[in-house]
Design a protein that fits this description.
This protein has helices at about 10-45, 60-90, 200-210, 220-230, 230-235, 270-280, 280-285, 295-305; strands at about 100-105, 110-115, 120, 125, 130-140, 145, 155, 160-165, 170-175, 190-195, 260, 265. The chain is an alpha+beta fold. Among the domains are: about 10-90, Helix Hairpins; about 220-305, Cupredoxins -  blue copper proteins (Immunoglobulin-like, Sandwich), CATH 2.60.40. It has a five-stranded mixed β-sheet with strand order 3-2-1-5-8. Helix 4 packs across helix 8. It binds dinuclear copper ion. Dinuclear copper ion (CUA) binds next to loops.
Length: about 300
């Protein structure tokens, strides 16, 4: 799994921010060296020595004051002049409609693709090399969407959509993280961005649009029955299962195709799925999914069923 290093930009958007950071850093480092060097030099070179008279007092020297006012002013103007084009590159104006709508929830991400109708959670697929416009929303509190290698960070505000662009130079997996404290499981609110070749991305969309795989064994049939008759169905949607269309919790239609469970806290394997269903509150205390005290047999059936939803 790829890291989330902000110093390793992988898109024109992130590179604009990185380049500005480096140039500003160099300018600031030069100022630090010149000012600190001057102070150290003055401390040693102009140290008071026994028997020497007081030096001339030159308070109010106009030339000196104009100089130390004009130079910082020019530095600020320079930084401003560098920042404007960087802002333009990192954050061009939004188009009227978004390619992806990313909604923050305590403590997971919902991703909807309005043009195709795909809806998924905690994993965004994008075509590599193409900028996607992303609208950021929130269902509850402030969250903040941040995929450091790919784009700037931006807050998800309830009732006040924000906008960013998302782009990756080349195919790969990029980790993002909620970066605004939003509750007990803020730290486990990760998002995976999977950049793919355009044809692969198209394929992914087609797969995601299909209704869920129907159960083919008696265990998975019982698993689906359990999903429908217990409280799962109150919060989770599964496309193709009658009545399962709640949007409170992640859509499970293709849950087994995703890389992680619980917004990053577990790798998505059948045994982790079972462990998660057994005691989500042990794995992710404070998550909104409660423990249900399912029997071992029920856990087998439900996790087996969900693991077929690819
Ligand atoms: Cu969501 Cu922090």
């Amino acid at each position: 799994m790829s890291s989330s290093n902000a110093l390793d930009p992988q898109s024109p958007l992130a590179r604009a921010i990185y380049d500005l950071g480096i140039v500003s850093g160099i300018i600031l480092a030069l100022i630090f060296v010149i000012v600190t060097g001057g102070v150290v030099y003055a401390i040693f070179h102009f140290r008071a020595r026994a028997g020497e008279p007081d030096p001339n007092q030159i308070a109010g020297n106009r030339k000196v004051e104009v100089t130390w006012t004009v130079i910082p002013f020019l530095i600020v103007v320079l930084l401003f002049a560098l920042t404007l084009p960087a802002m333009n590159r990192a954050d061009p104006p939004p188009p009227p409609s978004a390619d992806v709508v990313v909604t923050g929830h305590q403590f997971w991400w919902q991703a909807d693709y309005p043009a195709s109708g795909v809806t998924t959670a905690n994993e965004i697929h994008i075509p590599a090399g193409k900028p996607l416009s992303v609208r950021l929303e929130s269902k509850d509190v402030l969250h903040e969407f941040w995929v450091p290698k790919l784009t700037r960070k931006m807050t998800n505000v309830p009732g006040q959509p924000n906008h960013i662009w998302l782009q990756a130079d080349k195919p790969g997996t990029y980790i993002g993280q909620c970066s605004e404290f939003c509750g007990t499981q803020h730290a486990w609110m990760r998002i995976v961005v999977v950049a793919e070749e355009p044809t692969q991305f198209e394929q992914w969309q087609q797969t995601q649009l299909r209704p869920a795989q129907a159960p083919t064994s008696s265990a998975t049939t019982k698993g689906l029955e359990l999903f429908r008759t217990s409280t799962c169905i109150n919060c989770h949607a599964i496309n193709g299962v009658p009545g399962a269309n709640s949007r409170v919790a992640p859509d499970l239609t293709h849950v087994a195709s995703r890389r992680q469970l619980g917004a990053g806290i577990l790798e998505n394997t059948p045994s982790n799925m079972r462990a998660w269903l057994k005691s989500p509150q042990h794995i992710k205390p404070g998550a909104l999914m409660p423990d249900y005290s399912l029997t071992d047999e029920q856990l087998d059936q439900l996790s087996e069923y969900l693991s077929t939803l690819r």
